[in-house]
Design a protein that fits this description.
- With 372 residues, the protein is mainly beta.
- The protein has two domains: 49 residues; 317 residues, Methylamine Dehydrogenase, Chain H, CATH 2.130.10.10.
- The protein is built from one helix and 28 strands.
- The chain has a four-stranded antiparallel beta sheet with strand order 1-2-3-4, with no helix packed on it. It has a four-stranded antiparallel beta sheet with strand order 5-6-7-8, with no helix packed on it.
- Strand 2 and strand 3 form a beta hairpin.
- The chain is globular, with a radius of gyration of 21 Å.
């Protein structure tokens, strides 16, 4: 559906009241234009004053078994041993790259994105070494003002923001190919999630004006190009409370089977992608916060946000089509939760200036936390 048509209600008016019908139609157009204009003004206003992650702030986090990896902007990456969180190692951005803003883990590699223009992508091997070792890059990639990175099964994609989305291949040693494919999906692509099979991706998309949603695409294949399949509009206007430039746009996704969970201002959207050409919004779960980020592991989904108050929300997704809210954990008042990751024994929340918060994996009852 054309996003500009999504809010129009068609009302039948008797023919004999032509003057009234004309006046009514004019008023409807004015009302709809005003509504759209107000939403567009809100988008523009929020975009101008949107928070930016500063040097040393914890913006994004990912977990591999018992190790957490957290981005620190110009200060690089922090590696945390979750068995003893005081054991930490910092890695500076690779030479040629000025910042580490987003992170993805796939196939034994760590993909690090400098999401500040001109933009750089680097690959580190996890192997058995701590800290991880640089395998490839940094290579220049289009970014900004929001961008994310995701990878799976030999494919890595950088969403590109208002620039083109870009795909590279990587080999068994983590070496990056040249650019394989690019695409533009609308006004911008602030984030992307690549499925573990490396054949599908789900893209946070700014269509036009105050209209945002999720776009499903196919990756690679014999044609070595992105192929757009379908999209779903979301009840959000994008630059909502709780996110941060350049890699925490508050429309982020996680995948379980053929269900994509999308954190956004209205809650947690549950989208079926069983038919990738016709993704279907099944429901939106009210999680008590303007959701910014989500992770899923096993039967647990974890959602974070900071408006109206900082929260970690845990849901049972044993039936992925019908999540059940189980627990809400209040985070420190001065925290600004922008990312969450579920490990084998811990849930980790990145809270910008407040650092990392580490919780035991549920049970669903413990709220003890360790602060770094």
């Amino acid at each position: 559906m054309n996003p500009l048509m999504s809010n129009i209600a068609f009302i039948t008016i008797p023919r004999q009241k032509s003057r009234f019908r004309a006046l009514f139609s004019l008023l409807m157009v004015i009302a709809l234009t005003t509504l759209s204009s107000c939403q567009w003004i809100a988008v523009t206003y929020n975009a101008i004053g949107y928070p930016t992650t500063e040097r040393g702030e914890y913006a994004n986090v990912a977990v591999a078994e018992t190790t957490a990896y957290a981005t620190l902007a110009e200060d690089g990456l922090e590696v945390v041993d979750l068995r003893d969180p005081q054991r930490r190692v910092k890695i500076l951005p690779p030479v040629g790259s000025g910042s580490i803003d987003d992170i993805a883990i796939a196939d034994g590699f760590l993909f690090l994105l400098d999401a500040r223009e001109p933009g750089y992508l680097s690959v580190f091997s996890l192997g058995n070494s701590t800290p991880p070792v640089l395998s490839s890059g940094p290579v220049t990639v289009p970014v900004g003002p929001f961008s994310g990175v995701s990878a799976g099964n030999g494919k890595v994609v950088v969403s590109g923001g208002t620039s083109s989305m870009t795909q590279f291949d990587y080999d068994l040693d983590g070496k990056l190919s040249s650019v394989v494919a690019t695409i533009d999906l609308g006004r911008g692509q602030p984030d992307v999630l690549v499925a573990p099979d490396g054949k599908r991706a789900f893209v946070s998309t700014h269509y036009i004006g105050p209209y945002f949603g999720l776009t499903a695409i196919n990756i690679g294949g014999d044609s070595a190009v992105f192929v757009k399949r379908g999209d779903v509009e979301l009840d959000t206007f994008g630059f909502t409370d709780g996110g941060a430039k350049p890699a925490n746009f508050p429309i982020e996704a996680a995948l379980k089977e053929n269900i994509v969970f999308v954190a956004h201002s209205s809650g947690l959207a549950v989208i079926s992608v069983e038919n990738i050409e016709q993704p279907k919004l099944l429901r939106t779960v009210d999680v008590g916060v303007k959701a910014v980020n989500v992770d899923v592991a096993g039967d647990i989904a974890a959602v974070v946000g900071s408006s109206p108050d900082p929260l970690l929300v845990l849901l049972d997704v044993s039936d992925p089509q019908a999540p059940v809210l189980k627990h809400t954990v209040k985070l420190p008042e001065d925290s600004y939760a922008t990312s969450v990751a579920i490990g084998t024994e811990h849930i980790i929340v990145a809270t910008q200036k407040h650092g990392l918060l580490i919780f035991p994996t549920p049970t669903m009852v413990t709220t003890t936390r360790k602060e770094l």
